[in-house]
Design a protein that fits this description.
132 residues; globular; 33% helix
């Protein structure tokens, strides 16, 4: 919600929605419903940026995976820009945050957007130290 609070200070050219989905582990139920409802109402979604288990790590050895598909030209540009921005953050703050890009989209809330032809990127943790 901090991002939403910060964005209110900017004159955005587009409407920004902050949405929390449920049912991802049961087949992306919430995001699938959201995409279907938006399409039914004629909402023109330009981009979905999905964060799933971001910055989760038991230690400081975490990084981020940018996941999207190469079938959408918008995704290619967005993924490249995301990495460029992360590299700038690393340079400015010496964060040492590692990153990788995956073009194998599966199993999270960005997939229903991609299936509907909407540019979508998943950000998730590189950590494999998940609970349970």
């Amino acid at each position: 919600m901090l991002v939403a609070k910060k964005l209110r200070d900017f004159d955005m050219q587009r409407t920004v929605h902050f949405v929390f989905f449920t049912g991802q582990q049961q087949g992306a139920v919430g995001s699938t419903h959201y995409v279907a409802a938006a399409q039914e109402e004629g909402v023109d979604i330009k981009l979905a940026l999905i964060m799933d288990m971001t910055a989760y790590s038991a230690g400081w050895d975490h990084g981020v995976i940018f996941e999207g598909t190469l079938t959408n030209a918008d995704n290619r540009g967005l993924l490249e820009q995301a990495v460029t921005n992360l590299n700038a953050v690393n340079d400015n703050f010496r964060s040492g945050l590692s990153h990788e890009i995956s073009y194998d989209s599966f199993g999270s809330d960005h997939v229903p957007f991609q299936k509907a032809g909407i540019a979508a990127i998943l950000l998730t943790s590189q950590s494999t130290d998940f609970p349970g």
